[in-house]
Specification:
Elements (H helix, E strand, L loop, with lengths): L3 H6 L4 E3 L2 E3 L8 H12 L17 H4 L3 H10 L22 H12 L26 E10 L11 E6 L6 E9 L6 E9 L10 E5 L21 E4 L23 E3 L5 E3 L5 E5 L4 E8 L6 E12 L5 E8 L9 E2 L3 E5 L3 E5 L3 E9 L4 E9 L5 E7 L10 E7 L4 E10 L13 E2 L10 E9 L8 E3 L3 E3 L3
Parallel strand pairs: 11-14
Antiparallel strand pairs: 1-2, 3-13, 4-7, 4-12, 5-10, 5-11, 5-13, 6-9, 6-12, 7-8, 14-24, 14-26, 15-23, 16-22, 17-22, 17-25, 18-21, 18-24, 19-20, 19-22
Helix pairs in contact: 2-5, 4-5
C-alpha cells in the first residue's frame, strides 16, 4: 500500500487491499468498504450503551476517529485479540484480515470519505441492551455501590436469588447484565440447590484483615477465599457451620461471568446446552470498584432456552494455581515471575470448547497445553501479551480423551516496566482485589448429555464450577 505522496507520484495508481486501483476506479469509502468491517468487528462494543467510549454506528460518529482507527488496526490493538496465531484455530477469531486493515488505512489516508449512502450495507440488528435476545430475564440483586471507600476495597459479595425455573431447563445462551458496567469488576453466577439458611437478596461477604494499601495480610491466613469475619447486609447470623464452627457466606461459583470484553456465553453454535435443574437458585458473586460516583446497580440475567433436550451438555469450569502465600508470592521488581501451574486431569472423553485466561494488572502471559495419554504434548492457547482490560475467551474444538492432562502456565510482571503495575515495590499475593493477583484459567467442555458433570475433570488445586 502506498502513501498519498507515492500515489500521486504514480499518477493515481495504488495498491489498496491487494487490488490495483486506477484514477478511474472508485475510492475506498465508508459506506461501500468500511461500514461492513465495523459491523462485523467493532460495533459489538462501539455502540451506545456498551463498553467502548465511542460509537461507530454511523458515518458521522465514526468519521472523527478515522486516524485513531488507522493507528489501532496497524498496531493490532483493535479489535482486541491476544492469541498467538501459530496455535488454534480459534472459532471466534475477531482479529482483522490484512485486507480489512489495508481498507481502513486507505480510507483514513484518503480523508475518510463517506461515499454514496446507497452503498451502505443493511444496518446490523443489535438487541436493545443485550448481546443475545433473551427468552427469559431473571432479576438479580440490587447493590449500593459507594462513591468511594478506604483503599477502594469493596469485598466480594455473594447474593442468592431464585432462578424461577420450575422444571429442568436447558439454556442455550446466557448474559449477565449490570446496570453500571463502569463500576463492575466482575459478576459471576452458578446454579445451586435451594438452601433455606440463606435469605434471598441478602449480601454476604467475608471481611479480611488488610494493610494500609488494601492488600490482605498473608500472615493472617490465606488471602483468597480464606478465613475472615462473615457479615451480611441484614446482620443475618448465617447459621451454616463448617470446620471449627466458622460461619461462611453462601457458595460462590463461576459457571457464567460478566467481565470486560466477555459479555455473553452462547452454546447454540456448537449444538449444546446447559442444564438448570428445577428449583435451583442462582448464586451471584459480585465485585464492584468505586469510581467516584455512587450508584445503585441492578443486575439482570438473560437466557435463551430450548424445549428439546440436547445431545451434548455444556459444562463450565475454573481452576487455579496454588493460592497458598508460601507458594504464590510475586517478589518486588520482578519482571517475569513464573507462577506454579494449574493442572487438570480429564476423567471422561470430552470436547474442549472454550478457554479464558484470567489474571490481574501484573498478568503477563498464559499458556494452555494438553498432555495426552500417549505422551504427546500440544499447546492449544498462548496469550503472550495478556491485557487485564480485555477478558477474552477463545472458542476451540479439541477432542480430549480420558486421561489427558491440561497444564496451564503463567508469568507475571511486577516491575516498574509494567505501566499497569499498582506498586512494583511490593510482594504480591493471591487475592480478590485488582491490585492483588490471580492465576485463574477458565475452560469449558461438552460431553454427552447423560454424563455426570462431577466425574468429568479432577483438578490438582482448587476447582470451581462444573454445574449446568
Amino acid at each position: 500500500m502506498f502513501s498519498r505522496i507515492l500515489r500521486a507520484a504514480f499518477a493515481g495508481v495504488a495498491l489498496v487491499a491487494g487490488v490495483v486501483v486506477t484514477a478511474d476506479s472508485p475510492s475506498v469509502t465508508f459506506h461501500k468498504d468500511v461500514e461492513s468491517i465495523l459491523q462485523k468487528n467493532c460495533q459489538t462494543c462501539h455502540r451506545p450503551g456498551q463498553v467502548a467510549p465511542t460509537s461507530f454506528m454511523t458515518y458521522e460518529s465514526a468519521r472523527p476517529y478515522a486516524r485513531a482507527m488507522k493507528a489501532a488496526v496497524l498496531s493490532k490493538k483493535m479489535p482486541p485479540w491476544f492469541a498467538d496465531a501459530q496455535y488454534g484455530p480459534y472459532l471466534n477469531d475477531r482479529s482483522l484480515s490484512q485486507r480489512d486493515i489495508d481498507t481502513i488505512v486507505s480510507w483514513a489516508d484518503a480523508g475518510a470519505p463517506e461515499g454514496p449512502a446507497g452503498d451502505a450495507p443493511a444496518p446490523a440488528q443489535w438487541p436493545q441492551g443485550w448481546f443475545i435476545k433473551p427468552d427469559i430475564i431473571v432479576d438479580g440483586p440490587t447493590t449500593e455501590v459507594p462513591a468511594a471507600v478506604r483503599n477502594n476495597v469493596v469485598e466480594w459479595i455473594t447474593v442468592i436469588m431464585p432462578s424461577g425455573f420450575k422444571k429442568d431447563t436447558w439454556v442455550t445462551s446466557v448474559q449477565i447484565k449490570p446496570e453500571f458496567p463502569e463500576v463492575t469488576h466482575h459478576l459471576c453466577i452458578s446454579y445451586v440447590p435451594h438452601n433455606p439458611s440463606y435469605k434471598y437478596g441478602v449480601a454476604y461477604w467475608t471481611d479480611k484483615e488488610r494493610d494500609d494499601d488494601g492488600s490482605a495480610l498473608p500472615d493472617r491466613g490465606p488471602t483468597f477465599l480464606g478465613p475472615g469475619t462473615t457479615k451480611s447486609s441484614d446482620d443475618d447470623p448465617t447459621p451454616i457451620a463448617v470446620r471449627e464452627g466458622l460461619r461462611v457466606p453462601p457458595p460462590a461459583g463461576a459457571e457464567d461471568c460478566y467481565l470486560p470484553g466477555n459479555f455473553a456465553a452462547d452454546y447454540r453454535p456448537i449444538q449444546a446446552a446447559k442444564l438448570i435443574p428445577a428449583g435451583s437458585d442462582i448464586t451471584f458473586n459480585l465485585h464492584y470498584t468505586p469510581n467516584g460516583k455512587a450508584v445503585t446497580d441492578h443486575v439482570k440475567v438473560g437466557f435463551t432456552i430450548t424445549d428439546k433436550a440436547p445431545e451434548r451438555r455444556y459444562l463450565s469450569f475454573l481452576t487455579t494455581s496454588p493460592t497458598d502465600p508460601k507458594r504464590f508470592a510475586i517478589p518486588p521488581n520482578t519482571p517475569n515471575w513464573e507462577s506454579p501451574p494449574a493442572e487438570v486431569t480429564f476423567l471422561q472423553d470430552a470436547e474442549l470448547v472454550y478457554l479464558m485466561p484470567h489474571m490481574h494488572a501484573r498478568g503477563k502471559d498464559m499458556t494452555y497445553s494438553l498432555e495426552y495419554p500417549d505422551g504427546r504434548k500440544q499447546v492449544i492457547l498462548s496469550v503472550p501479551r495478556y491485557d487485564f482490560n480485555w477478558q477474552l475467551g477463545y472458542n476451540v474444538s479439541i477432542n480430549v480423551p480420558k486421561g489427558t492432562k491440561l497444564h496451564v502456565d503463567a508469568h507475571f510482571d511486577n516491575s516498574a516496566g509494567n505501566r499497569s503495575n499498582p506498586n512494583p515495590n511490593k510482594t504480591v499475593y493471591y487475592g480478590s482485589m485488582t491490585w492483588e493477583e490471580m492465576m485463574n484459567p477458565f475452560y469449558s467442555v461438552v460431553v454427552p448429555v447423560d454424563v455426570d458433570p462431577r466425574n468429568v475433570v479432577r483438578s490438582k488445586h482448587q476447582q470451581v464450577g462444573g454445574g449446568g
